[in-house]
């Protein structure tokens, strides 16, 4: 995972704000957060992937956030804010946890196909924010329980499929 710059963080927080603002100004129904949350979940779990498409996208989103954020803050303020933010990283996946991440990816892809134009933007914004913010020590530290949950869910799925008497 690439170190996130202060400018990349600023860009990501602007995207977060743009996605959460309509919900906050509206009647704050939880269902309004579903598209953004779906994307954010995919973004978060993609940071645990050491390879594959999700790992590549997670790493690329950090690089893109730094580049675009640097140009945007430079254009607005005259200062690019390239200083790095304290880096963080979520844990690793077991093979069983990887199956759960695969299923989350399939679910997100299906939600994307059924979504309208506005909800597609919210899914993409959520995936961006989830992946980029997990590169910070604060967010990664707050979500240290996620890899264990995914790995445990995968282990339970495997045990059930192997007939461990859970059903």
List keywords for this structure.
7 helices, globular, mainly alpha, 167 residues
- Integer average pLDDT: 93
What fraction of the residues are assigned to beta strands by DSSP?
under 5%
**Secondary structure: helix percent:** over 70%
Main sheet attributes: strand count, strand direction, barrel closure: none
Order of helices and strands: HHHHHHH
**Gap from first CA to last CA:** 39 Å
Q: Which spans of ≥5 residues are poorly predicted at pLDDT below 50? A: none
Q: Nearest-angstrom radius of gyration?
A: 17 Å
Give the total of domains.
Answer: 1
* Class inferred from helices and paired strands: mainly alpha
Number-wise, the strands total 0
The number of helical segments is 7
Shape field: globular
Give a structural overview.
With 167 residues, this protein is mostly helical. It has one domain. It has 7 helices and no strands. It has helices at 6-25, 34-46, 52-77, 95-114, 117-133, 137-142, 145-161. Helix 1 crosses helix 5 (117-133) and helix 4 (95-114) crosses helix 7. The protein is globular, with a radius of gyration of 17 Å. The N and C termini lie far apart (39 Å).
């Amino acid at each position: 995972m690439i170190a996130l710059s202060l400018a990349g963080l600023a860009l990501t927080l602007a995207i977060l704000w743009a996605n959460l603002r309509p919900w906050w100004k509206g009647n704050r129904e939880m269902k309004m957060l579903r598209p953004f949350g779906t994307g954010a979940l995919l973004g978060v779990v993609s940071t645990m992937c050491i390879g594959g498409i999700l790992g590549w996208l997670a790493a690329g989103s950090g690089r893109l956030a730094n580049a675009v954020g640097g140009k945007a803050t430079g254009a607005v303020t005259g200062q690019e804010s390239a200083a790095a933010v304290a880096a963080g990283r979520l844990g690793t996946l077991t093979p069983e946890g990887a199956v759960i991440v695969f299923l989350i990816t399939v679910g997100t892809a299906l939600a994307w196909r059924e979504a309208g134009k506005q909800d597609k933007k919210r899914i993409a914004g959520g995936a961006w924010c989830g992946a980029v913010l997990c590169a910070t020590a604060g967010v990664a530290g707050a979500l240290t329980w996620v890899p264990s949950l995914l790995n445990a869910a995968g282990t339970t799925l495997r045990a059930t499929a192997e007939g461990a008497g859970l059903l």
